[in-house]
Amino acid sequence: MTHFSSQSFADVRFLTSIFDLRDLPPPAIPEIAFAGRSNVGKSSLLNRLIKRRNLVKTSSRPGKTQSLNYFQVDTCFYLVDLPGYGYARVSKKMQAAWQDLITRYLETRENLRCVVVIVDLRHELKAADLQLVTWLRQTGVPFILVYTKADKLSANQRSKNAAALDAGFGVKTAERLVFSARTGMGRDNLLHALDSFLL
After folding, report:
1. How far apart (Å, rounded) are the C-alpha atoms in residues 126 and 130?
2. Quick one: average pLDDT of 66-87?
3. Rounded CA gap, 182 and 148, in Å?
4. What was the pLDDT predicted at 5?
5. Between the chain's N and C termini, which has fewer beta carbons within 10 Å?
6. Residue partners of 26: CB distance under 8 A and separation at least 6
């Protein structure tokens, strides 16, 4: 049995960008998807998770990820970077296309084990984040809430903001993680949480 937290991450490579679900790779190994608002730091979190500097390309321009980007880890898992949501400057047609792609993927992908929902700890609860979490609950798709950019706040402010988000999402402290891509805070906890979906 393979454990995510025991992976060496020695062989991590970009596999493909998917714009059409008919082009998805065969569902032979587990997949973990990463979702979040545009510019929330998905790419930075993924790079920290797999101990790479810039395998997952980061950008200061929101809306850059426009496809399902697949990364293969040690031939054991796929990590799937989903397009960011909630970026108003993208055309309505583009937003609708991304939404449709993400929704159909999350609803139908048989080897998807969980979705890591990444939320900026510095901000109050956003409607788009709550909509995604509510939809995942209703659809029965497992997810992990990760509050990121923790290094931008004092310990006291982190606690206050996390408590406010917990209340908004209706989760307990044990049901979410606090993370920093810059310092690595929460990385080990996230790896172990992902393990629980792979047993």
Report:
1. 6
2. 85
3. 10
4. 66
5. N
6. none
CA distance 15 to 17: 7
If phi over 0 gives left and psi between -120 and 50 gives alpha, with beta otherwise, what is residue 89? alpha
Write the single-letter amino acid at 188. D
| Distance in angstroms (rounded) separating the CA atoms of residues 45 and 134 | 23
Tokens representing 63 are 């809306």
Give the span between the Cα atoms of 59 and 66, in whole angstroms.
Answer: 12
CA nearest to 87, candidates 43, 126, 138, 55 = 126
Read off the amino acid at residue 98. W
Q: Domains along the chain?
A: 4-195 (3.40.50.300)
- Sole residue written with tokens 């908004």: 168
- Token pair belonging to 82: 């989903």
Higher pLDDT, 83 or 176: 176
Chain mean pLDDT for the chain: 87
pTM (2 decimals)? 0.90
Structure confidence by residue, pLDDT tens digits, 187-198: 999 999 998 887
Please give the average per-residue pLDDT across 96-112, as a whole number: 87
Report d(CA 43, CA 34) in Å as an integer.
9
Report whether 14 contacts 78 (CB < 8 A).
Answer: no
